[in-house]
DNA sequence: CGTTCTCTTGACTCATCTCAAATCTGGTGG
DNA sequence: CCACCAGATTTGAGATGAGTCAAGAGAACG
């Protein structure tokens, strides 16, 4: 379970940074960190605040230090689809392009370690460790986007909900070092609307399917933003994915 | 027509390669091309042939020289979603991971310039030009995947079809240097089934929506694999996208 | 304690899927 | 050149999952 939010300090030295080993700077050596230190700054956004608008020039890029942000694209008539979920250590902004192509919105309070785009790009081109990590992270994002496409194109509403809950549960278990095997509880960092945008559904369908999974005993709602999963395998079975994932010889 | 039949030669020298300036090697200098030359080989796959199976180890990676290949993921019960479309110059295989996570299938006859994964990775780590281009291509793929997610999650069947036709029409116009404005004809490199897998629809729905667009006069079928678009803007209107894309101040 | 927002639930509609059959196509062998 | 076959495509009829519209129940906030 998550504790009350710890008041974050500016991590003056990158070496103390909580995302030091997973962010874009993961492979940097101390001398390189000094250079990053020199050009970075921190900024905090409140829940619901827009960090960047689609189509606008993006003069800062950076890493999520804490909190959750969403990337979404909107059709002319208002239909919206989330296309990315940014968690701590994820990178915001696309090097080599002047504008963002989607809205970036803080889902809860988000803290960002940011750089001026131009300064960061200059540093990247001189720092192979940064470029290598950036490539690796982008490849991971692409893999995730492709799993997500399978979900959007072929899964039922119930499977979509189960898949999302499984993702969130697994990540939370990772963070808190619980074992996934027995009952685990996690908090939902997304509103029903954000879940609907993530899954390509309506709010009502999200709500109905959560109720259905609750009725089936697969999940228990502690309150509307905290979920308990008594049997993680049962949840995976509902997600439509190969349950033996990775076990194939 | 040329008198002598043109038989595709192995492009012994990269400098003569048709995808030289768009593939992963785009930024390489002649001395670097020599190194690529030394470790590359060519292979041709027939239409329908599987180039790589999901979950299998992938010991070769490389670039599509000609033809079209598809990436797709399959659920345990057989539902399938295409998650990538590989065109000439696109890169097959993921550096830094031993297995592929989806099936790679030739949609028509595909010719590949390939490298042993281990040799290629060794070269990448010593060749910044390769790494930079790889990052750039991966970022483009990620952008494309995100547009695709919007299509899968929020567009209607008719909009999905129109979007796909618009993409194919635009690419074909690019290749043949036609202007997109007036009536243009292009060939459909995908079967109805492949289109359905791309769009998250069934074959029947694909067929019905193509018929509907035909009846509405938006497209004309020369035959079932060749489409004429009398008015490209009308097609874009059907696609659901902002028609004024990029024109917003 | 209203006000407002989020979430849940119900009743009905409709887009897309499913199942089934007809038609078209290209390729093969006689 | 034609008959035939297998696969691809189209079309129809009916089923159904998810959307829409509407109302009510909680929660959060000042």
> What is the CATH architecture term of the largest domain in chain A?
Sandwich
Instruction: Tell me the strand order in the biggest sheet of chain A.
Output: 1-8-3-6
**CATH level 1 class label of the largest domain in chain A:** Mainly Beta
Number of helices of chain A: 7
Q: What features would you highlight for this structure?
A:
homodimer; 249 residues; alpha+beta; Jelly Rolls; Arc Repressor Mutant, subunit A; 7 helices; 11 strands; DNA-binding
What does this structure look like?
- The structure is a homodimer of 249-residue chains.
- Chain A has 249 residues and is of the alpha+beta class.
- Chain A has two domains: 14-147, Jelly Rolls; 156-239, Orthogonal Bundle (Arc Repressor Mutant, subunit A), CATH 1.10.10.
- Helices cover 38% and strands 21% of the residues of chain A.
- Chain A has helices at residues 30-39, 117-126, 128-154, 157-176, 192-199, 203-215, 232-238, and strands at residues 41-45, 50-52, 60-66, 69-74, 80-86, 91-92, 103-106, 110-116, 184-187, 220-223, 226-229.
- In chain A, strands 1-8-3-6 form a four-stranded antiparallel β-sheet.
- In chain A, α4 (157-176) packs antiparallel against α7 and α5 packs across α6.
- Residues 1-8 and 245-249 of chain A have low confidence and may be disordered.
